[in-house]
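Thread: "does anyone have the structure for this chain?"

Original post by V.I.:
We have the sequence but no experimental structure in hand. Need at least a predicted one for the grant figures.
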Amino acid sequence: MVEDNEDFRFYIKDNLKPYYDVLEAGDGKAGWQKALSGHPDLIVSDISMPEMNGIDLCRKIRDDRRTASIPVILLTALTGEEQQLTGLETGASDYMTKPFNVEILLSRVRNLLNQQENIRKTYQKQVQVVASEPEAAPVEDDFVRRALAYVELNLSDPDLSVEGLSREMFMSRAALYKKLFTLTGQTPAEFIRQIRLQRAKQLLGRGATTVAEVAYQVGFNNPKNFAKIFKETYGELPSSYLKNRTSE
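Reply from O.Q.:
Generated one for you, tokens below.
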């Protein structure tokens, strides 16, 4: 919640906090910093504020790949259509004119978060497809595409880590966790492991190599540990999976 009027900010926060964890900032500049550090699921921001107004804040959020997917609801006391169009043209997801019924705000927040959840489920399905067959279906979200590309480029490296992925995405570990989980339903560590395992399954399905060689190719430096995790995930040992595929 980004609002310079302390009383109004408290009022909105008081109505939101029974349902959501609420971060707050008193101006656009502080709001931008909170967006980077907290990576919220949604931002509600006033337009007329010191330091950085809501229009500029929304534009900054949309122009930065670390925050571009966060929905923004803009609030204003101005009623002109030009003001509304300016807000929407900067990428705001919704627009509300003060005064307003707080129940309507809650309804719009719920709707936007539900939309985000549907998007997350869609991307999660796409990630599973791309991880198993890299050329089968492109991932539409640039963030997920870049994360996949980095993991696949470094797949054989046993030292591939969440820290490395965070650096590649120019995000803190906490922000990466939040955004990747929102889009894919997976933590960064789960995301990396899923791609390793699905690529291993793909290689084994081709029947062109040994289990140990596949383990090393996807970044496991211990074939026994790889076999254990593979069985936990797919219900059979990689040797059985390889044997079944080569006999087909």
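V.I.: this helps a lot. Residues 61 and 67 are 5 Å apart (CA to CA).
O.Q.: and The two ends are 58 Å apart (CA to CA).
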